[in-house]
Specification:
By secondary structure, this protein is mainly alpha-helical. The chain has 3 helices and no strands.
Length: 62
């Protein structure tokens, strides 16, 4: 999935959760979202240390 589509989906889920919390809070209903992210492991640390890779994967490659 392209990063733009993924970000749009994540934003939609966050806004849906916020809306549900606002609309249903008066009834005692809570709304939560769990979003994926990086878990720091040996493999992720190796990628995080590679600045050239991060610059290449950035939106404007800088």
């Amino acid at each position: 999935m392209e990063p733009c589509r993924l970000q749009c989906c994540e934003g939609g889920v966050a806004n849906l959760t916020r809306s549900a919390a606002c609309d249903l809070g008066k009834y005692g209903v809570r709304a939560n979202t769990v979003a994926p992210g990086l878990t720091v492991t040996g493999m992720v640390e190796a990628i995080m240390d590679d600045q050239a890779l991060w610059k290449k994967r950035g939106p404007v490659s800088r």
